[in-house]
Amino acid sequence: LEGVTCSACAWLVERVPTADSRLRRADLDFGRSSVRVVYDAGTPLSEVAGVFRSLGFRPRPGDDPEMARLRRDDRRLWVLRTAVAFACMMASMHVAVSLYAGLLEGISPEIVREMGLALGVVVAPVVFWSSIPFHRGAWQAVKTRRLSLDLLVSVSILVGYFASLRNAWMGVNETYFDSVAMLASFLLGGR
């Protein structure tokens, strides 16, 4: 079952039988992204898959060798996204510490603006590439008209980034680029 990214998704998958009486049970193996479904005899498998598709998930047969390859590739991509997020987070913290120290010693507004915009560039890969799983999950939640943790995280990342970009452009030192990078990095690492 592709598209299961958080505990809210797992909760939703396991509650499917309460929404469709033809399904008796749905047990999710979160680590393997697989679901075992017990359903009424006579219910076409395409309709069972359609129930999960309507929730924004992509069901595939469990013995599909292509699925095993996709899971392996997805894990590798996840590790790469997380590594990029952590690297950008550490780089952004170095620049942010310089800005914080400059406030104590006195720093010119031009330098504040330039360093703020540099932070925006450093954190951009986290927002627009590493955080894609959150943005995808948020889009699924919007499409299915439900709330999810991914929706909250995605909105937080985007609002924090663009508000910081605006402040940096205006030369205001209240930017949250380092916080945005840390939020995304730790949540990616936790998954």
Structure notes:
With 191 residues, this protein is mostly helical. 70% of the residues lie in helices and 7% in strands. It contains eight helices and two strands; from the N terminus they run ααββαααααα. It has a two-stranded antiparallel ribbon with strand order 1-2. Strand 1 and strand 2 form a beta hairpin. Helix 4 (65-105) packs antiparallel against helix 5 (109-130), helix 6 crosses helix 7 (149-170) and helix 7 (149-170) packs antiparallel against helix 8. The mean pLDDT is 87.
The N- to C-terminal Cα distance equals 17 Å
Order of neighbouring strands in the sheet with most strands: 1-2
Q: Sheet bearing the most strands, described?
A: 2 strands, antiparallel
Report mean pLDDT, rounded to a whole number. Answer: 87
State the helical fraction.
55-70%
pLDDT below 50 for ≥5 consecutive residues: which ranges? Answer: none
Structural class estimated from helices and strands:
mainly alpha
Computed CA radius of gyration, to the nearest angstrom: 21 Å
Shape: elongated
- The count of β-strands is 2
Write the H/E string, N to C.
HHEEHHHHHH
Classify the oligomer. single chain
Provide keyphrases for this structure:
about 190 residues; two-stranded antiparallel ribbon; single chain; 8 helices; mainly alpha
Quick rundown:
The protein has helices at 7-14, 16-19, 45-54, 65-105, 109-130, 132-143, 149-170, 177-190; strands spanning 23-29, 34-39. By secondary structure, it is mainly alpha-helical. A hairpin with a 4-residue loop joins strand 1 (23-29) and strand 2 (34-39).
